[in-house]
Input
Amino acid sequence: MAQKTPTSDPLSTRPGSARRILPGAEPEKVPAIQVSGLVKTFGAVTAVNGIDFTVPAGQTVALLGGNGAGKTTTISMLLGLLQPSAGTIRLFGEDLASRRHYLLPRMNFSSPYVELPHRLTVRQNLEVFARLYGLLDRAVRIKAVVEELELRALADRRVGTLSAGQKTRVALAKAMLNLPELLLLDEPTASLDPDTADWVRAYLEGYQARHGAAILLASHNMGEVERLADHVLMMRQGCIVDAGAPQDLIERYSRQNLEEVFLDIARDRRAGFSAGRGEADLLSGGPPSDRDIGPN
Amino acid sequence: MTADRHMSATPRFRDSALSRIAAMVLRHFYVLRTSWPRLIEMAYWPTMQMIIWGFFSTFLYAHSSWLANAFGVLISAVMLWDVLFRSQLGFSLSFLEELWSRNLANLFCSPLRPIEHIAALIVMALVRALIGVLPAMLLAIPFYGYSIFSMGLPLGAFFFNLLIMGCGLGLIVSAMILRFGLAAENLAWFLVFMLAPISCVYYPVEVLPDWLRVISWSLPSTYVFEGMRGVLFDHVFRWDYFAASIGLNALLMSVGLGIYLYAFALARRRGLLLQVGE
Output
């Protein structure tokens, strides 16, 4: 995993849409994700409000924010499950809107909220998805992911009979079948006990180290984000209101950990932060001062 | 638990629409293979229908000059009607399976294209229709000494047209479910029955009032059942009816496909692919 070094927020231009070229990227590598001016509205509700960001190849970026901040909506648009109202998404340098079916085999997705068919066994599910992803050596690959994710004892059990944690591991196995270059994970350790969650995080770190995959992670688990993410995008009300390496954010907010930073942002504990000026000032004005951040 | 094992092999890939269609067929095959109550249920109703209409035909055979000319006309009609019903149901239920299991998002963030999904649903409509009506067709031979297969090649033409019509209706039902969610699920069960009276399954089109005949002749199924009676009573295969049925089915499939793809695009705009489910 790439070393996480404290850095200042790269740059910003306009509220909620500052383009962020994340530090540590190899300049010759095409970014895994380039998002520009991304907007999603549902009627009068703006779920994602003009966000811009880049995820370099081989890095882990976390989307953090409270419920309804726009994280899952953003991931859904990156998967092509949801059509943006405006803006562009480029994956591996190619336009998602026009090249979706050529890009999807290079990525995968896992979420505890999207289930696999309950009546099929774990092995049957993996067989179906291995075929969907066009894998030729299916038996070899399925055996590999079953062993890696320690699913051998569950392989011939129906998914509907598994516990929530076991289902999460099966969903992760599905997501690993095609050796994705880009992995989109929506709360990958939700419903897992601490031991299994720690194991999954170690697995993700190992996978990234071996394959150089980019990971975009939406999570409410701050410890997980601090451990896995090279960079964090803080979302609030559909906008990216701050960004940086986890340690950098902690230092800038003068907090002990990322959870406290998250609470500052989620509860809008910044003097003078208002809908009219907050995001623009925060993003363009550099790190907030102690005066700007404080308990209520 | 340890997490430091390494990938044992570098996989190879092939971009193949056929492989993806086969994957979806396999997914439904897995469900059917392990669910014998479903298999029995699929064959149960067509067989019961065949038995009831078989006894009714036996009774009418002695009391009706019309039926005396072709004993198997009612049994054939009920079995062909089940081809239409079962294929529509097979298409729609296979689609609903994905919603019930909340699997649509997994499918459509994979390389599967909507048109490949539809192709797999058509295969499943054929499989489910065969599972449903084939036992009834075979049992009619020992029960009543009547073989629907005595119609010969025209039976294949009728079967094909009813299968395609069932899939066209299945596309419309699936589109409605995508658009309105599982609240529209019951359409899968009753839509096709709305067409039964005007498809003239058991009686000729002449029975209908003039204004209703116009509507009746706009359905592919009407040409199939009139064509069936032509074969059984007059021993003539009506190519004109066959051509009309093919043409109307092409139109129905085009409209169904258009509505489905529109509903799919709408679902992508509104985020319904992530939300629909139990």
Remarks:
- Chain A has a mean pLDDT of 82.
- The first strand of chain A starts at residue 33 and ends at 42.
